[in-house]
């Protein structure tokens, strides 16, 4: 393929501008310290992850050799205060997730599951003793966690239909059931398992120490077409005994689970926006370098129309999620706010990555050109943390005052 400079010469003008998906300069809403953190994450993703991630994606493999460098980023426990966590604002967490996904949504998901879901469950629903025991080592990535809510037969209906059960016998709980699509599960150290207490029919959370717990087994899910770097597992729990000290002491109903999910839906909106940014930047660079009829395809009206629509989607999503962070800082963020952000950003991401793939023509289906990876990965972002339709029902209840859930 011709270089960007060669394309510029053909275009007969000054050097072409580099791809930039921050059209409304939303990064300028960060403080200097926050921006330094985001730039550190961007440098890591561009220099360490970008050169190797396509090979791992094609192979369905996780780049374990990158874990030491990920630990050094200092993003374990972002937006969590104390307990050895990175702290900072929820806005900073969002921008970091966006930067991660801009290069690879799988790495963003790995960190999102570990920090947002696993650590988040302990931070929000755990006792002081549990926070002191688990969060520092998880913030240092010495213990990696996963979050077991979804089941083979229960997805959107988790609030009232979990089939995994918990039975208390003295100071011990016995868990039985299955969990599916659990990111990090095949190799992580700690699993947060949500189960229905047969005594009161309420959903409760448990910390399961995977490697040392009899009856706990995990099978890796094979042949995925999206987020292939993330290792998803099918967990089986057969008479798994968990001490009362490992029950999340403030996780006593699905309302408590939902507190965690509100924060992770918030993060998925940022990740989806980052995914769209990565696809757009790859497509823009391609359009500047790809020559047809003796000139860059970026000079064609229909290509510019696609690029304009893509950056509009990204900018709208960025503005929405930045405002979402402001609402959280003001103590005003609701479940419906988070649902709207997740639904809108993932839908616009889906549209944007499709245009990126389209712009590249046949090359758009080859993983080496990046757009194909973003195109596939977006499908998982669109579905997990609650489907588009479920988010819309949360929004619908908020605006009408009438619940339409089955």
TrEMBL record:
<dbReference type="InterPro" id="IPR037069">
    <property type="entry name" value="AcylCoA_DH/ox_N_sf"/>
</dbReference>
<dbReference type="Pfam" id="PF02771">
    <property type="entry name" value="Acyl-CoA_dh_N"/>
</dbReference>
<keyword id="KW-0274">FAD</keyword>
<feature type="domain" description="Acyl-CoA dehydrogenase/oxidase C-terminal">
    <location>
        <begin position="257"/>
        <end position="399"/>
    </location>
</feature>
<dbReference type="GO" id="GO:0050660">
    <property type="term" value="F:flavin adenine dinucleotide binding"/>
</dbReference>
<dbReference type="InterPro" id="IPR045008">
    <property type="entry name" value="ACX4-like"/>
</dbReference>
<keyword id="KW-0285">Flavoprotein</keyword>
<feature type="domain" description="Acyl-CoA oxidase/dehydrogenase middle">
    <location>
        <begin position="146"/>
        <end position="240"/>
    </location>
</feature>
<dbReference type="GO" id="GO:0006635">
    <property type="term" value="P:fatty acid beta-oxidation"/>
</dbReference>
<dbReference type="InterPro" id="IPR006091">
    <property type="entry name" value="Acyl-CoA_Oxase/DH_mid-dom"/>
</dbReference>
<dbReference type="InterPro" id="IPR046373">
    <property type="entry name" value="Acyl-CoA_Oxase/DH_mid-dom_sf"/>
</dbReference>
<dbReference type="InterPro" id="IPR013786">
    <property type="entry name" value="AcylCoA_DH/ox_N"/>
</dbReference>
<dbReference type="InterPro" id="IPR036250">
    <property type="entry name" value="AcylCo_DH-like_C"/>
</dbReference>
<protein>
    <submittedName>
        <fullName>Glutaryl-CoA dehydrogenase</fullName>
    </submittedName>
</protein>
<dbReference type="InterPro" id="IPR006089">
    <property type="entry name" value="Acyl-CoA_DH_CS"/>
</dbReference>
<dbReference type="Pfam" id="PF00441">
    <property type="entry name" value="Acyl-CoA_dh_1"/>
</dbReference>
<feature type="domain" description="Acyl-CoA dehydrogenase/oxidase N-terminal">
    <location>
        <begin position="32"/>
        <end position="142"/>
    </location>
</feature>
<dbReference type="Pfam" id="PF02770">
    <property type="entry name" value="Acyl-CoA_dh_M"/>
</dbReference>
<dbReference type="InterPro" id="IPR009075">
    <property type="entry name" value="AcylCo_DH/oxidase_C"/>
</dbReference>
<dbReference type="InterPro" id="IPR009100">
    <property type="entry name" value="AcylCoA_DH/oxidase_NM_dom_sf"/>
</dbReference>
<comment type="similarity">
    <text>Belongs to the acyl-CoA dehydrogenase family.</text>
</comment>
<dbReference type="GO" id="GO:0003995">
    <property type="term" value="F:acyl-CoA dehydrogenase activity"/>
</dbReference>
<keyword id="KW-0560">Oxidoreductase</keyword>
